Each structure stands twice: as C-alpha cells, then as structure tokens.
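Preliminary data (for renewal application), zinc ion complex.
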Amino acid sequence: MPNLKNLPKVEVHRSSAGLGLFAGEPIKRGAIIIEYVGNRISTKDADKKGGLYLFEVSSRTTIDGTPRWNTARYANYACKPNAEAVLHGSRVMIEAKRAIAAGEEITYDYGKEYYDDFIKPHGCKCASCLAGNPPRYR
Ligand SMILES: [Zn+2]
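Predicted structure:
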C-alpha cells in the first residue's frame, strides 16, 4: 500500500463545471493527491443502480463514491488532465501526472464509457475543449 500520510492539501470550490477540486499547495509529479473512497458494492448492483460516482475496481467490486465525504468526487473530468486514477489492489488513488501548481484545478480522465454516457450528450466543457481543441474521445 502506498503511504497515505502527508497527502497534499486540497480545496473544494467553484470551477467552470460546478464544484471542483483544487490544489491547496504545489503537488509533485507522481504524488498521490487523494484516495477515491466510498461504499463498496457489487459491480452487479452498481450496474443496476447507475450514477455519476461509481468506480469499478474489479468485475466484482465497485466503489460508490457518492457520499460527500469522498472529497475525490469533486475532481472533474478533463480531456487533458493533470492527474490520473491509479488502482492499488482494490483501492483507487488520484495521482499527479505532472507537477501541479497551488490553485490549479485537479482533473482526470474518467474513461470513454463515462464520457460517452454523461459528457458527450452535452458537449465537453473541460478547459482544453473550451479552448477549441478536439475532445479526447469522439
Ligand atoms: Zn474536453
């Protein structure tokens, strides 16, 4: 298990996409930012339930990250994100893909399935797309 002590400070506040997760201090490339936590449910139940904050960690287990104590749920999707979700066994860590400056919004790629279901219908509003770049998924 990675060391989860001394995780960087993060803040939740308003972003272009509603609430977002922001770096409260500079974060080094590769550093764990926050764990994606929630209630563990069966992937079968998760498929039935549906929802925005489901993170499938295996064919059997899905994390339902809906509770507000899952601060990681505030990290928004982006086509050119500065962080990524990494599995450590059955736990999910949001880790910095590059150095992140204090005050920068923390974003990661939720994957194509999520994109197709929840983002594509309304058009992607991540910073890269708003700047006129083509979206990551078509
Ligand atoms: Zn985008």
